[in-house]
Design a protein that fits this description.
heterodimer; A: 234 residues; mainly beta; 10-stranded antiparallel β-sheet; two-stranded antiparallel ribbon; 43% strand; B: 485 residues; Porin; 16-stranded antiparallel barrel; 3 helices; 19 strands; globular
Chain lengths: 234, 485
């Protein structure tokens, strides 16, 4: 992947505590829309004297595309269809201010260093194979958080007994499926999605392929991903 | 129903409790916006015979006038973020569908109908009342686009009675907020619907006491204080607004309020303030007590005739400026449609398996206050400035004129009061400029064309924390037609 262009996509976080609500009673006002949880779902505890995190969602904004590979293989003599495997690498930074209320609400008293250590351990606990069901959209289900990786997690004390935590975020999801070609349109039928994504393509010179999201849509269903410039690997 | 009967019905409703008195007319200088004073309007009619004891029309000596305007506005936007009015609404994010596609709207909902009544004077007490409606009322939730634009709902704009006495003047009812000296001649001239971004523009039920000192002299002073509908009824305490206005009556300039008809007004400087209390349910699924916070606001308004007007009938070469600077906390409702995207946070569900999951039900509108990460109630700060200029070309007695507006509004704490994951849904600041060309084809028929540009800075930092915040933009072209009657 030689170059990419991405818009600053934003997805409203999924309000997980709205799940399992009883059916709204008629003539009663519906609850106001809310923003997200200040503590980002943090659950702290202790195990054998050590601070552990058993739940947390690392908040971050849209990640920038840094590289990747897309492998196209044809199974048709006219080169009109085949299979593909795409790896889109994205990186960025995240930060959260964990207030004293967040840090103590589980009955714990922890230092910021201990929080950073516990978050690092938690971030390393991959639950399943980095897979095809998740993109790096902030609106992805919470389970997709495990397909991100978080580096250099650092937490420093700030005023009011809070911890300011900063970390790097990267995502290298692998997207697989079948592709078909119709005119100048390249259609990616992702194995995990019900709707295909469409891209206009142009082959330039020796092994250079450019993709544009068709009609302004996102390439490979990655939110905001507008263009990709690919160079054939040697 | 014939117009005289309609006026009588509305008038009887407005002035049912007024004392009988003798003929009087309102002072033109006290008129908000672009409405001619009682007695100047050819539609003034005589009372209709009573139809029932309760709706009995006022007797001899009353003066009534029907006024208003029929208006059509046609707008084209480069995004799909705005309805008919832009105000302080959220813009679409760059790269989104709404941000990348245009929209065209035509509406007559800004048309207005009003009736003003003046009772006969009772000794030295002058009594008057006013009712005014437009068609920007609340639409039912199942309204379609067609019904929204072709059968809009009626909205009450003004509905008040006013007593002028030698000691103090009393206004009771719904009127412009005293904060920002609404309706007192400080609005800028624009085809855009007021209030534009960062402009204090709001009406409220209130009880206002005011006093004008030196009304007939070169310099006059207006003092006013009002108890206003509390922004949160559960706060128990009415909002308090107060203001002082100084007018230099020998230095007059031409002014048009919004898309209103030009008139002549004196140089004026106004300062005003608002104070309010919040008592918001604790940030718990089942709150116990209320959390208390206080909001405040201060505003300064100037109307400056740089080149004074020659006469009422010749506005040519007149140049006037308007300035409004405001700051405060917990006052977003006083800027039209402003929340900045601020919401109450989500109540945590640490175990993730509470059934039903906890839900917080705030007892105040969104965007005014919120709970911070420590569960403390905080009011959201805003500060704004709005500059306006209007110049009446030295042709056709100033019946062709141009105007421009520039404004900016920003919040210093909305970012810190929004959880990290939701910061893409708020804006930190908004900037707005417009340019307008008007022509009074006849004294009663006015046409305006406008270009308006809005820009909002969102709260997130995608890609890299060292890169600037994303910015949303919209450009609007607007054409307005208005027939005054």
């Amino acid at each position: 992947m030689a170059d990419a262009c991405r818009d600053p996509a934003f997805g409203t976080p999924v309000p997980v505590t709205y799940y399992q609500q009883p059916v709204q009673i008629a003539r009663q006002p519906t609850p106001m829309t809310s923003s997200s949880d200040w503590c980002s779902g943090l659950v702290l505890g202790t195990a054998m004297g050590n601070t552990v995190v058993t739940s947390f969602t690392f908040p971050h904004d849209t990640l920038g595309v840094t590289g990747g590979q897309i492998s196209y293989s044809g199974d048709d003599p006219q080169h009109a269809q085949g299979t593909y495997q795409a790896v889109v690498n994205t990186v960025g930074q995240g930060a959260i201010e964990l207030s004293a209320a967040c840090l103590s609400r589980m009955g714990t008293s922890v230092s910021c260093d201990a929080v950073a250590s516990a978050l690092t351990t938690f971030a390393g606990m991959k639950q399943g194979d980095p897979g095809i069901a998740c993109s790096d959209s902030p609106s992805e289900p919470a389970t997709c958080q495990f397909f991100f990786s978080y580096q250099n997690i650092r937490c420093a004390p700030i005023a009011g007994g809070a911890c300011q935590c900063n970390y790097g975020v990267s995502f290298s999801g692998t997207l697989t499926g079948r592709w078909t070609r119709v005119g100048t349109l390249l259609i990616h039928n992702d194995a995990s999605r019900t709707l295909p994504s469409q891209a206009d393509y142009c082959v330039q010179g020796q092994g250079s392929l450019s993709l544009w999201g068709h009609d302004g849509t996102s390439i490979l269903n990655q939110p905001g991903l507008r263009t990709l410039s690919l160079q054939r690997s040697p | 129903m014939k117009i005289p009967r309609l006026i009588s019905w509305i008038g009887a409703a407005v002035l049912l409790v007024m004392p009988r008195a003798y003929a009087q007319t309102r002072e033109p200088g006290q008129e908000p916006e672009d409405v001619p004073p009682v007695g100047d309007n050819p539609t003034t009619v005589e009372p209709a015979p009573p139809s029932s004891p309760r709706a009995a029309p006022p007797g001899p000596g009353w003066q009534r006038s029907l006024y208003g305007f029929a208006e059509l506005d046609a707008m084209h936007d480069t995004s799909q973020a705005y309805g008919p009015a832009s105000n302080n609404a959220m813009l679409a994010r760059p790269g989104s569908y709404a941000g990348a596609h245009a929209r065209t709207q035509l509406t007559v909902a800004n048309s207005q109908l009003g009736v003003r009544l003046a009772a006969p004077d009772y000794g030295r007490i002058k009594t008057s009342g006013r009712a005014e409606i437009d068609f920007f009322g609340v639409q039912p939730t199942d309204a379609t686009e067609q019904t929204t634009f072709t059968t809009p709902s009626v909205r009450m704009r003004l509905f008040y009675v006013e007593l002028k006495t030698p000691i103090v003047d009393v206004l009771v009812g719904q009127y412009h907020d005293l904060f920002g000296w609404g309706g007192a001649g400080f609005y800028q001239n624009s085809v855009a619907f007021l209030g534009v971004a960062g402009e204090i523009y709001h009406r409220n039920p209130q009880i206002r006491l005011s006093k004008t000192l030196g009304g007939d002299s070169a310099v006059s002073l207006d003092l006013a204080v009002a108890a206003v509908r509390p922004v949160q009824r559960d706060s128990e305490v009415p909002d308090v607004e107060g203001g002082i206005k100084v007018s230099v009556n020998t230095w007059k300039g031409a002014t048009a309020q919004g898309f209103g008809r030009p008139s002549v007004a004196p140089l004026a400087i106004g300062v005003s303030g608002v104070g309010r209390r919040f008592a918001v349910a604790e940030f718990l699924p089942n709150p116990g007590d209320a959390k208390i916070a206080f909001g405040w606001g201060a505003a300064a308004n100037v109307f400056l005739p740089v080149i004074p007007v020659r006469s009422d009938s010749d506005r040519g070469n007149a140049l006037s400026l308007t300035v409004e600077a405001s700051t405060g906390s917990g006052i977003s409702d006083l800027y039209t449609g402003l929340t900045g995207g601020a919401l109450f946070p989500l109540l945590p569900d640490p175990s993730g398996n509470l059934v039903p999951a906890p839900i917080y039900r705030p007892n105040i509108d969104s965007g005014i206050v919120t709970y911070d990460a420590n569960g403390d109630l905080k009011s959201i700060d805003w500060r704004a400035i709005v500059l306006g200029a209007q110049y009446y070309l030295p042709v056709a007695n100033g019946r062709i004129w141009v105007s421009a507006t520039a404004s900016r509004i920003e919040s210093a704490n909305i970012l810190g009061l929004t959880p990290e994951a939701s910061r893409g849904g708020i804006f930190l600041k908004q900037e707005y400029v417009d340019g307008n060309l008007f022509a009074a084809v006849t004294p009663e028929f006015q046409v305006g064309i406008s270009y308006q540009f809005s820009r909002q800075t969102f709260g997130d930092r995608p890609f890299d924390v060292n890169l600037p915040h994303p910015v949303g933009r919209n450009q609007r072209g607007e054409l307005g037609f208005r027939l005054f009657f």
